[in-house]
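RECORD CONTENTS
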Amino acid sequence: MNKEQTLLDLFGTPNAVSSVPTFVLNLVLAALLSFLLGLVYIRFGHSLSNRKLFARNFILLTVTTTLVISIVKSSLALSLGLVGALSIVRFRAAIKEPEELAYLFLAISIGLGFGAGQALVTAVALAIIIGIIAVQHRTAKPAEAPNLYLTVSSPAPQALRVTQILEALAQTGASASLKRLDETPESIEAAFLLAPTEAGKLEQFNRRLRDLSAGVRISYLEDRGLGS
């Protein structure tokens, strides 16, 4: 078989040529719907992470899923090959909140639908899901101002004292109560329950502690995140 015939078999088969416009249309529609999903996530999401930055992944994830499903849907051999290829891929990105995982699954579902040629069903389902999200957002009760769990870790030789931490908090007008104190010759770790306060005051508190100890580690956790 000559090279011309090989290229014709790869790129010039009637079925492949006739399916290209449909594939391109599905790819464009999938990208548009994933862009819409990103706007919904930015508007109605509750994640503490950067939602705009996270939403940028939706388009790439959706169109990639559409491409993969479009290729393997008509071939059992390609499907098995895909399973083998994915088995060696390791995803190390940490999903910090269940909401992020739910939107990722929704983006993948859009790609699956368009890749399988179910454009209408996928678009209708997405419209219904967006409607449900909007209704939930509108009917949800306003969240109460949460308390914060503050954890301060400071290594030796510049380990902070609890009195220094409390003084730094007092200078910002924030009130806190000590909940746990772990002190060793190498470091000190203290946990406080912090009353609701302004973000600007917390930043001022962070700068004050870093001036006292360059190696200090500061973390905040919303108390609702510890509930059952």
Summary: The chain is about 60% helix and 15% strand. The longest strand covers residues 148-155. Confidence is low (pLDDT under 50) at residues 7-14.
